[in-house]
Amino acid sequence: xxxxxxxxxxxxxxxxxxxxxxxxxxxxxxxxxxxxxxxxxxxxxxxxxxxxxxxxxxxxxxxxxxxxxxxxxxxxxxxxxxxxxxxxxxxxxxxxxxxxxxxxxxxxxxxxxxxxxxxxxxxxxxxxxxxxxxxxxxxxxxxxxxxxxxxxxxxxxxxxxxxxxxxxxxxxxxxxxxxxxxxxxxxxxxxxxxxxxxxxxxxxxxxxxxxxxxxxxxxxxxxxxxxxxxxxxxxxxxxxxxxxxxxxxxxxxxxxxxxxxxxxxxxxxxxxxxxxxxxxxxxxxxxxxxxxxxxxxxxxxxxxxxxxxxxxxxxxxxxxxxxxxxxxxxxxxxxxxxxxxxxxxxxxxxxxxxxxxxxxxxxxxxxxxxxxxxxxxxxxxxx
Length: 383
Known about the structure:
Helix content is 44%, strand content 20%. It is built from 18 helices and 14 strands. It starts with a strand and ends with a helix.
């Protein structure tokens, strides 16, 4: 049964040119309608997949810091009533670092949020303008200061491997970021996603992404510097002090059950995968018609689940226990990993093995997508 809950708020003030998330810009939002609709979706999901206390709640988006604190409080009160909260529950909310949204941080903390993830993305105005962000650097750092006063745990995002970015530039920015003293950083390489404004600019020859070798050098530099500051990587793009890992994201990467509500939200629980209607208006119509936002619910076979668990688990520096995974899904270890290929990549410093626990090295993480196709048997990937 689910111990993690994801709540999707789909609205943003502006669509960033690199973003392919399910986010939408609308002239106005009926807050009462949306609060009631999310609560209805929540109740349906609890009836379908309740039973154990929640260990984490994550408000993602979109820009959930645009939600009125009263809505956040109402959703948390209802979730606690429906599921119950485990001691020490992690309740995270993604936030844009604008002064308007930072003004709500005290009220959001009062509503029960105890961890915030800030989308700083960069620490200088020129880069923020390039990334299409609405805040400037000073406003972002002020929001970070407010967040650190109100929340016990704070993380923020930076985007690197930007066009023409040099190792010297990135090292200076990263060391400055580490100096702010948060316990968690999410450091993402800029990727050109299909359907985004950046993808259009690349196609038109107006934007030249950083080449793969240069991006790989920045990836290695990132791991070296964060580790030396006590925030080693625990996943491809996520770095944390001891005890500060994102428990909610670990639920995904360790392939534990979770529920998802709100437009476009995915869930996985009791061997079933769920997907909500993606467009906000379609999701609302489904709530009005059926009492929930579900667009799809399907059973997952054991081989498909094992494949997904491998693809997620190998993102983690801790790797994955093949014996435990095989026991969970009734599969032999040799069905889960091509051990000959694993040995080959061990010899090249890209993978490791300790008994039946396998993983990818720091160097291997830089080429993880290619490695996964080599380590996970083709028959399993085709499940």
